[in-house]
Design a protein that fits this description.
The protein is α/β, with parallel strands linked by helices and 347 residues long. Helices cover 44% and strands 14% of the residues. The protein is built from 12 helices and 7 strands. A 5-stranded mixed β-sheet has the order 5-4-3-6-7. It has a two-stranded antiparallel sheet with strand order 1-2. The protein is globular.
Length: 347
């Protein structure tokens, strides 16, 4: 049986005219194209697709090809295409000559399988790795003691039905999931919270997260950096509001320089996996399914970062308005920040 594979030879789909050719290829030949073509369709080169297929094979392979069971490689590439483009399932089905119900079923199965890999790919650093991260942050931005960057980002969804619908309306007026990620100096996601409706404040997401409990127990030496929407804590440094001294201004400048990496992390994540970018349209799924897509693409984002793949050319602007914050954290937080400024930013 042959599958119709639409191959576009291009570098930037939005800025250049597409050169398109329809080819008939057997299922086991669908990865025979050059890496730049595979990346344009699936965002991964051949060797990473094959690695992912082998990791997912135990969860996806069927003992028989009866009843229309698809080869694992086709299940995985169909899902990657959906994540990469945000295509409707009917369009993915057209490209792979598979029925839409089959695409729908396989998409959720592949998504669940990728989510099961999260403990292997999304890990908060410890030990020597934590020390290396601190050193890299100092070299990059001049901010000492940083073990990660925390921020929230809104992932748009269609309006859900039912009484919880208003909770998903974010401060920008559309329906969304508020996703919190902690990134390192290489824009690898080190911790993820993806479950809260778009109206929930970043500070609430952090305060109720497992990483807050973990750090409050003193289990990691150093601090996260967050914007002014986050609570000031001994392990979470926020900017100084209404800065008064040169030392505070130098601290804020280093803080902002460091946090720009987290803004770019979200831009690279959504730019590569366009199902989450508003330019690709709102995902037409329930919030529960969108949360699964977020977790799956977070794993895929880390696979790309760990393999040092180039960032996508189109990175959506991710400078979001900071939530209304305050600078009246607990005394222990203010003391820790004052000590940091006095030790490293006072000349």
């Amino acid at each position: 049986m042959a599958a119709a594979l639409l191959v576009g030879l291009y570098e930037d789909e939005e800025k250049r005219n597409l050169m398109v050719e329809r080819l008939l290829r057997p299922h086991n030949d669908m990865l025979s194209f050059p890496d730049h073509v595979l990346i344009s369709f699936y965002r991964l080169p051949r060797h990473l697709i094959l690695n992912l297929v082998e990791e997912l094979r135990p969860a996806l392979e069927r003992p028989t090809r009866r009843h229309g069971a698809l080869p694992v490689v086709m299940q995985v590439t169909n899902a990657l295409r959906f994540f990469a483009k945000g295509d409707f399932q009917t369009e993915v089905a057209s490209l792979s000559s598979v029925s839409q119900p089959c695409i729908s079923k396989n998409l959720m199965e592949v998504t669940k399988a990728i989510c099961s890999l999260a403990p292997n790919y999304i890990q908060f650093p410890r030990g020597e790795e934590l020390q290396r991260i601190k050193q890299d942050f100092v070299r990059q931005s001049g901010m000492p003691g940083v073990i990660g960057l925390v921020d929230g980002s809104l992932f748009p969804i269609k309006a859900p039905s039912g009484p919880t619908e208003p909770a998903y309306v974010c401060r920008k007026g559309y329906h969304a999931i508020n996703v919190q990620a902690i990134g390192d100096q290489n824009m690898v996601i080190r911790h993820l919270v993806a479950k809260w409706p778009g109206s929930i404040h970043d500070s609430f997401v952090f305060n109720t997260s497992g990483i807050n409990a973990y750090l409050s127990e003193g289990r990691a030496s150093g601090w996260l950096l967050g914007d002014s929407g986050y609570p000031l804590k001994p392990y979470l440094m926020t900017p100084v509001m209404n800065e008064q001294t040169d030392a505070e201004r130098r601290y804020n400048a280093a803080h902002k320089r460091c946090r720009s990496r987290q803004e770019r992390l979200y831009g690279v994540w959504k730019g590569r996996w366009r199902c989450h970018d508003m330019s690709g349209g709102y995902l037409q799924y329930s919030p529960e399914k969108v949360v699964m897509f977020v977790k799956a693409t977070a794993v895929l984002h880390n696979i790309c970062r760990m393999a040092n793949l180039p960032d996508p050319e189109h990175i959506p602007a991710m400078v979001e308005d900071e939530e209304e914050g305050h600078d009246d954290g607990a005394q222990t937080g203010r003391t820790a920040r004052n000590n940091l400024i006095a030790r490293y930013f006072t000349r």
